[in-house]
Model the fold of this input.
Amino acid sequence: MASKASGIFWTWVHSSTGPKTTHFWAPVCNWFFPIQALYDWNRDPAKISKEMQCVLVCYSSLFMRWALRISPQSYILFCMHLFNATLQGRLLIRRLMWESSQQKAIEDKPTN
Amino acid sequence: MGPIKKLQAFVCAQTFWPQFMVRWFQAEKGPFTIFFYCPLAKCGISVANIYDIIKKPVDTINPVQQSVIAMSGTLFARWCWILKPRQFMLVFANSVMASTGIIQLWRKFQSGQSV
Done:
């Protein structure tokens, strides 16, 4: 049984879509997008790029639909883009709220 | 029929379009399908990065995000190259995306800042 299990594992390792190929690592590295958004959970809003965050939210929203329209469907890719759209959207909202508070501070400043 | 299909049927039913436009509207990867907009979204990342290169100061560069963009662009460019059939447009789009990420990282490195 152990040799059969290790056979399955090593068959996968050496397969044409296994971890020795780009077919494996290219989709895996897509997961670094939501991981980066988690890493930047408390990033200073002044240093968040509004344009880049908007584009990343749109990118992930479109690819959520793409993951379900390709054949075969890729639920893992769908989940990844769902997380990414949510987390990058959170950074975008942080930036927009900071800009709004900056604007309010300027307007509330008493004029001499 | 879903709303997109209804819109596609409505647009294709107009008589003023030339035939090649109607064929494009009805294509498997035409403008009424998601397959048309996904490469555009990838290009959008490159455009946003180019805008940030030109307009934004170096201290706003996010090195983690740019590393992910560079690595993802490189790996996807290679993946699209080895796919059958070879996807030249996606190779190009991903290469440009990776290049913008590398340029941003280079700018950050040159300025000597870490975050």
